[in-house]
Amino acid sequence: MSEEYRAMWEGLGINMRRHDMLLTALPEIFQQIYLGQQQRPEAMGFFDFVVSQIHGIRVKELMDHKAKGGKVFGTFCVYVPDEVIFAAGGIAVGLCGGADFSVPTGEQILPRNLCALIKSAVGFKIGSICPYFQAADVIIGETTCDGKKKTWEILNEYVPTYVMDLPNCRTAADRDLWISELKRFVDKVENVTGNTITPERLAEATALINRKRAAMDRLFELRKARPAPISGLDALLAVQISFYDDPARFAQKTNELCDELAARVQAGQGVAPAGAKRILYAGTPMPIPFWTIPALIEGAGAVVVAEESCTGTRLLAGGQTALPGDGIDRQLAAIADRQLQTNCACFTPNDARIEDILRLAKEYEADGVIHFSLSFCQPYNLEGIRVQKALQQAGIPVLVIDGDYTQEQAGQLKTRIEAFLETL
Amino acid sequence: MSEEYRAMWEGLGINMRRHDMLLTALPEIFQQIYLGQQQRPEAMGFFDFVVSQIHGIRVKELMDHKAKGGKVFGTFCVYVPDEVIFAAGGIAVGLCGGADFSVPTGEQILPRNLCALIKSAVGFKIGSICPYFQAADVIIGETTCDGKKKTWEILNEYVPTYVMDLPNCRTAADRDLWISELKRFVDKVENVTGNTITPERLAEATALINRKRAAMDRLFELRKARPAPISGLDALLAVQISFYDDPARFAQKTNELCDELAARVQAGQGVAPAGAKRILYAGTPMPIPFWTIPALIEGAGAVVVAEESCTGTRLLAGGQTALPGDGIDRQLAAIADRQLQTNCACFTPNDARIEDILRLAKEYEADGVIHFSLSFCQPYNLEGIRVQKALQQAGIPVLVIDGDYTQEQAGQLKTRIEAFLETL
Q1: Chain B residues contacting A, CB < 8 Å?
Q2: Which of A88, A222, B172, B282 sits between 20 and 30 A of B181, alpha carbons compared?
Q3: Average pLDDT, chain A
Q4: Cis peptide bond upstream of A294, omega within 30
Q5: Domain limits of chain B?
Q6: ipTM score of the complex?
Q7: Can you tell me the distance from the alpha carbon of A317 to that of B358, in angstroms, rounded to the nearest whole number?
Q8: Which residues are bridge partners to A72 per DSSP?
Q9: CATH number for the A2-193 domain, one of 3.40.50.300, 3.40.50.12780, 1.10.10.10, 3.40.50.11890?
Q10: The predicted structure's pLDDT at residue A2
Q11: How do residues B200-217 score in pLDDT, each as one tens digit?
């Protein structure tokens, strides 16, 4: 990472000593996990570059945006509608914390019995070690789990945190509630940005996010090919970067990647031998730089063909958002109707998620499913029990595990993952 | 416990060997914790009798009710409206599991990282060791926490489990959602019982539950006296029994207890020396037979004057339910409006709970507050952080702890509670 951003970080109140430690560690890990892979697509160069500049170039863009009066919204969930934020001239950036580095800092104010993601994210904020957090004018939380729901109340003492009330079920009454929350969010975003969200601007922003979604859909469609044209690690990296990169640029770069992958598929080329076991990942999201699970799977000679996760197919659920031409209310309902097809474990019942996993295992010709959830993530820990049962009944090999971001955990997970792969 | 109920238990499919173990252990624990207390009110005799017959006499009443075609609804939360169940001629019984005895059984199908209450309750069902669970025609769950929300999906494979969709917030839209859930519940209860809920029957049942609530309110009002006229252990026992006893009988017996306590207050008599430290308990519910916390506090010479808990003041929040005379919809709205004053940690924001605790500490002249939550109960674990801060700011001594139902935990809690009491 270049020295040119130091003044910017200092201006953002970054704890430079700890931030230097973080930015020293990351390239080594990235080198070790990513750059030694065989047959990487050339178009991954863009995504590698983004990682190499992880707290630099994009943060600079955010600061330039803010210098012109623009606002930055930090988010944690695919249920927070980027469309609304961009329609008001704001920028949405995903803030999910995926680094063990900041977990002990989070534990200074949070209970240990909480998932690593929440502790990592809060640790980044209270330790002043994430420029995205520092650049955000407001954090948009949601009520997807007990841990996040109650953590926002605490985080709000450190940074303004607005909470969207995502319901527990998906009845008609819950849909009404969610649409009313989207309307309340429009008011909030207008208030923060000082800009009015017109139907035209919302349509434009929805089309922008649709283009980004289409590019990622294409990437996932190409991953169905045998042999797999891209590693699970590389596909995950692209998805991780989708949470904070500029949407238009991301769509373009992902389409360039897809062009290259399409040529590979046409030529029957892959990243792994034709006989490599194909693994469907299912479970909790894998925020950057949490690459442990695909690294272990692919390090053992298998290939991850898809992720049923919020850093995977759940992000893309519902496909393209409809663009009704008759006003904000109908547009928000279209966003809600697209979103509510995302089968988060926060919902009950959530049988559709189990059906998704069975369908994805078939469509991606998976030899087995690895269900991973962060420890203390009760929605996914508990849903894993029913997922396991359903896959066993369908005759699909499955491994259900949980863990955190630590190296200690990685060691234990390695043993279990390798033992599972040997049975396939 | 008399032998006369053995045939009934066998008919209910009870695992007799394990049930015998449970019923052998309970009287010893009860003797040790309860019967050695000084200056117990005579009227506690009724509640002692109920405990001595814990799986007998009330279960027999439920079975007689079922023999006449009546239905039994098992519940776990003060948000499930007993009024609706009794209005349809059903009987509601609280099923919260408070015994470590069944936790290992629950852990056979549930993750360990889940609160003892959920594991105990599920263990009672799948181990066939609770006649109330066996007698229930349907279990009514709710979406108050991730643990319960997702456990119902699993429990439903063992016993029909209906889920009420309690929202995460309390905006006008959430209130509408909850009222729609109460309407859906009316349909469900009518369907299960085969009886129609008329406005007259609902008014009658609401008045019945109001009488029970008034008796408990009176008990809590009397506990404000100095010296305390009743131990925290005894008051808790009465509240625990309120969850499953016949409401009319419970109201009568609790009023008899209150008559005796009122005479004590008048005479300036108490259960503890005038100088005994007065403790407000705040936190998660203490289902029967989880008596550890007040036993430790009172064993160290202090007295628990109130419980800000669902086995305490949260159960009574909102006072008497209004009785509008103009139809079911208005009646359900009145129930909702009373219920939504219960400041469960499932809600965000939930500042009103912190205000409740500050107010109760003052009203009950508490020398300190002990906030206890079950381990892995994320809503209360996390809210405990803000409770602690608010109490410290108000200059009220506070101890925030978490734990489970085991004897090992009790040992650690004893040390911490005694150390806290010494500082007062």
Answers
A1: 109-111, 113-114, 143, 145-147, 149-154, 163, 165-169, 171, 173-174, 176-177, 180-181, 345-346, 348-350, 375-376, 378-379, 381-383, 385-386, 402
A2: B282
A3: 97
A4: no
A5: 2-193
A6: 0.96
A7: 46
A8: A91
A9: 3.40.50.11890
A10: 66
A11: 999 999 999 999 999 999
